[in-house]
Design a protein that fits this description.
This protein is of the alpha+beta class. The protein is about 60% helix and about 15% strand. The protein has 15 helices and nine strands. α10 packs antiparallel against α11 and α12 packs parallel to α15. It is elongated. About 0% of the residues have low confidence.
């Protein structure tokens, strides 16, 4: 029996790996434009890291889909070449070759569980916050790497124009000469100006250190045109996180690992404990999906062995459709009832609808 298991295990793993690689490559290619856009002028490595972070977020969807397609492809080929018929004729139950898909599904469920509960929350957090190194992103977003005579500080509505710039290269201070500084009204009042447009002889921006959480702008020898008030030195500061990522958002349940999420719920510190429990149930439901799809994919291949591989691939869409319909319904039922157990609804639908089908196919 082990030879039979090894024969199908090898083919199933190869097919699943190829299918996952192809699907993941399609996702990466589709996200290249988004990665370049969010890099906002950074290097090629920055854009590649951003693209990979967004692509990895699709892992819980690609893993079961690629495994189901590989299972259906593998055993549909075995059915067309009469291998399953020969196994039945030898008095061996079809449950024996099905064990290959069950074993692979179990292994993928373990990997998926670890990934969904601990790895992907960190990926989900980083794809929104820690995408580009903060200092480099600050300099890029301010436009200091361009040849334009205008510099804007994102998220602050502060800009300046200059006649001459000094200082090139990472680590050196950047100096602007003969500048006009454009300030929003509230920022101008904070600095003691009446006019929102201020002339400054020299503006110096020290290159931020690695541990700095603010960026300093040193204004030397300036004047307010409306009041003709002069100043020798001012040093406004701008928060580095707001500059480095103007699209940051509040932390969500998807950004936290399951252990942290569960601890907040048990200690009563989570604002929405029912939604957090639903997230935990939903993650576990996605994790066990390969284990459920293994027997279903095998039985779909048996049912379509006389209809061709194209039909078997089309039938493979049915359990995927059932699962995602259950996922959508679970979210709606959670909002309607507040019951977190609806996170298990997709798996429950697959078990209820798939068990009679698999029982009938295995006993034929």
């Amino acid at each position: 029996m082990w030879r039979l298991h090894r024969y199908y295990l090898r083919e199933l793993l190869v097919n699943a790996s190829i299918t996952f690689a192809v699907l993941f490559a399609i996702v990466v290619i589709s996200l290249v434009a988004r990665g370049v856009q969010r890099a906002e002028g950074g290097g090629l490595l920055d854009a590649a890291i951003i693209t990979m972070l967004w692509a990895l977020d699709s892992f819980p969807h690609l893993l079961p889909i690629s495994f189901l397609l590989a299972t259906v492809t593998t055993f549909a080929r075995a059915g067309q070449e009469r291998e399953i018929t020969a196994i039945r004729a030898a008095g061996v139950s079809p449950r024996v070759p099905m064990m290959a898909s069950v074993l692979v599904g179990l292994a993928l469920s373990v990997v998926g569980s670890l990934t969904l509960h601990y790895v992907l929350p960190e990926v989900h957090f980083r794809k929104y916050r820690v995408i580009v190194e903060a200092v480099r992103n600050t300099i890029v977003n301010m436009g200091l790497g361009s040849s334009d005579d205008r510099v804007s500080i994102p998220g602050t509505d502060v800009a300046l124009t200059y006649a001459r710039r000094e200082g090139e290269g990472e680590g050196s201070d950047i100096v602007f000469r003969d500048c006009w500084l454009y300030l929003p009204d509230d920022r101008a009042r904070d600095l003691g100006f009446v006019s929102p447009v201020v002339h400054v002889d020299r503006v110096r921006i020290p290159w931020p250190k690695k541990d700095d959480m603010v960026i300093r702008v040193v204004l030397e020898n300036g004047s307010d045109p409306l009041t003709n008030t002069r100043f020798d030195l001012l040093e406004p500061r701008f928060p580095l996180p707001a500059i480095s990522d103007s699209k940051r958002r509040d932390e969500r349940d998807d950004d936290m690992g399951s252990s942290q999420l569960l601890s907040e719920v048990l200690r009563g510190q989570h604002e929405r404990p029912m939604a957090a429990r639903y997230t935990l149930n939903r993650r576990t439901c996605f994790a066990i999906l390969p284990l459920l799809l293994g027997p279903i994919g095998f039985c779909l291949a048996l049912a379509s062995q006389n209809r061709g591989r194209a039909v078997s691939m089309l039938l493979a869409l049915l359990p995927i459709g059932v699962f995602y319909v259950g996922d959508v319904m679970g979210g709606k039922l959670l909002r309607a009832t507040g019951e977190p157990m609806f996170g298990w609804l997709p798996a429950a639908l697959l078990i209820v609808l798939g068990t009679p089908f698999c029982w009938r196919e295995l006993r034929r």
